[in-house]
Amino acid sequence: MVNFNEVLLKQSKSLILKDFQKGKVCWESPSNIAIVKYWGKKDIQIPLNPSISFSLDKSKTKTIIEFETKKNRTNLPSINFQFEGKENKNFQSRIESFLKLISPYFPFLENLDLNIQTENTFPHSAGIASSASSLSSIALCLCSIENKIFDTLHDSNNFYKKASFISRLGSGSAARSVFPQWSIWGENNTINFSSDEFAMPLTDIHKEFQEINDSVLLVSSAKKTISSSQGHNMMNGNPFSLSRIKQANKNCIELYSILKSGDLDNFIDIAENEALTLHALMMSSTPGYLLLHPNSLILIDKIRSFRKETKIPVGFTIDAGPNIHLLSFSKDKDQIDDFVCNELSVYCEDKKWIDDNVGNGAKEILMMNK
Length: 370
Hints:
Helix content: 25-40%
Radius of gyration: 21 Å
Shape: globular
Number of helices: 10
Number of strands: 13
Strand content: 15-25%
Distance between the termini: 37 Å
């Protein structure tokens, strides 16, 4: 287990009571899209297999946390939470559970009142992982509060490592959102810096993959019949679980090599294989279930036909839902945008799609304290 100065923080938390603390922090954190998928977990948000993803640029959550010394002493921070200017009791309840879970790593929080405000740049039902962006932005804010009070996270490597660790406890995929561009989460014996406890950035990435685009084709905004949390749990009894772990480890090794070499064709092969494997695992669960829609299958067929006809390196990935992420590269953007608008958007709900691309990770927004 990683040591994040919990003993020091516990000894020092009384400083908040002696020296009045009041301030405001703000972070923007993106969602991310996994190419090698994380599916299944053990213990507390420990993945069954490693995953590799890239952070998005436009699809992100902005979180502001105002903090001050608690007026009424209790064992947990008191929270006032708003999502896009309105109360959201369901998400507030999730944040309260999250803060309770991470309290050993931020023992000083019990002495603080927190006012949390979040907003997304993308619709909640857009098929983009809002839990990854929202919980990572909250984790980053909490690390900033710790550093403001105790100066324990002034080293940027330690700061982002703890932010990723804390994010993981709220949402596994959130661990990857704090880093720019490409990252890996989950231990892989060949990629020796990888870890189950936090994500790590991938370096030496080829220019083509530093400019990858993600056109999110919004097939349906309907609530999923099986949540991702339920799907992860179903992997425990899946007959293909062990084979999947072996496959994901192999694909992570191959993908990291591809990302460094710039091999677009093999990248597409792995991306599509991983996407279809994810949905095959859902169908082979007990009970089996299917999240793809008829239009999802039409879009997959059209993307593959377009690639065969034009020789343009374009492919797809899919998260745990019906929406299709069309993966392409900057040199082909004009043709891909025409393809989406003229041929693919008709199969999207209300012809909606999101034009996004690889991003530079989380960003702190400096604010004047009241």
